[in-house]
Amino acid sequence: MHLLLLPTQSPVLSLLDFQVDFTLLIKVAIAFLSGFLFGVTYRYAIRDDQNPQLKAGVVLAFGLVRGLAVIEGQPDITDTLWVWGILVIESLIEFAIARFTLDWAIHRRWIKPFSLWESSE
Q1: If residue 85 lies in a helix (H) or strand (E), which one and from where to where?
Q2: Higher pLDDT residue, 54 or 50?
């Protein structure tokens, strides 16, 4: 638009020329939503329990659902099976990092786990 007003390219106005990558924005929004839902579910699932299988189960459930959802829409996954395996492992690692971050924050008492016996005073 500014090319119509000015005959030469202005460096200042060229900063205003940017394109929004909506695909990237959607992927970032999905990642944030997934992380938020994981955090809420994880805090609710573990409550005051120190069961490592329960904690790992929440991570495994979220990681598998997110990783396998990518594969579901593909017509032929046999050619790129190792790529899909990497995506599933990547999702598992991401949720494991989130789990250890939440455990660390709970241990430092920055956030509280949900409790069944907590009074509403």
Answers
A1: helix 81-107
A2: 54
